[in-house]
Design a protein that fits this description.
By secondary structure, the chain is an all-alpha fold. It folds into two domains: about 50 residues, no CATH class; about 100 residues. Helices cover about 65% and strands about 0% of the residues. It has six helices and no strands. α4 runs antiparallel to α5. It starts with a helix and ends in a 7-residue tail after the last helix.
Length: about 160
């Protein structure tokens, strides 16, 4: 957002009132002068409502993926509009590529979370009778084995 704001500032900082009006920026100029005020192309101001967080890693990562794709599409449209401005194109192309990389990283994170959630989980509770009985059974088997070893040898050394 800061880079696009900087580009807009560079393009409008020395604009005359006539150029502002011809560019369709008169309503914007009336409210904000030539200062940068983050808003959508239709004039809707940026709000924290655009940052959607559910607290569920899969839902949040899906939201991140969608945001990156929307940003990429916006940069592509800006690139289409700015073909005659090479100084503007390079930063926009950089931002578009950055959105692509972010999308890939969020996709990798989503796959990692999905893999982790798909893993089988094993829970052990030492108070559970199944585990207590199995533990006792192992101990009893070891004691029985020791007793057999001692009974077979008259010396009791277990050899």
């Amino acid at each position: 957002m800061e880079i696009v704001g900087t580009i807009v500032h560079q393009l409008t900082r020395n604009a005359s009132i006539e150029e502002v009006e011809r560019g369709g920026l008169a309503p914007y100029y009336t409210d904000h002068g030539l200062g940068i005020y983050p808003q959508a192309a239709a004039g809707t101001p940026f709000t924290a409502a655009y940052i959607a967080v559910k607290g569920d890693p899969i839902a949040d990562l899906q939201e991140d993926l969608a945001a990156e794709q929307k940003a990429r599409a916006t940069y592509e449209k800006l690139i289409d509009l700015c073909r005659d401005y090479p100084d503007v194109l390079d930063p926009l192309k950089f931002l578009r590529e950055r959105e692509i990389v972010h999308f890939q990283r969020f996709g990798e994170a989503l796959r990692g979370v999905q893999d982790k959630l798909a893993e089988k989980k094993f829970y052990m509770n030492s108070n559970n009778p199944i585990f207590v009985n199995n533990s006792n059974m192992s101990t009893n088997m070891m004691n029985n084995q020791n007793m057999m070893n001692t009974n077979n040898n008259s010396c009791g050394c277990g050899r």
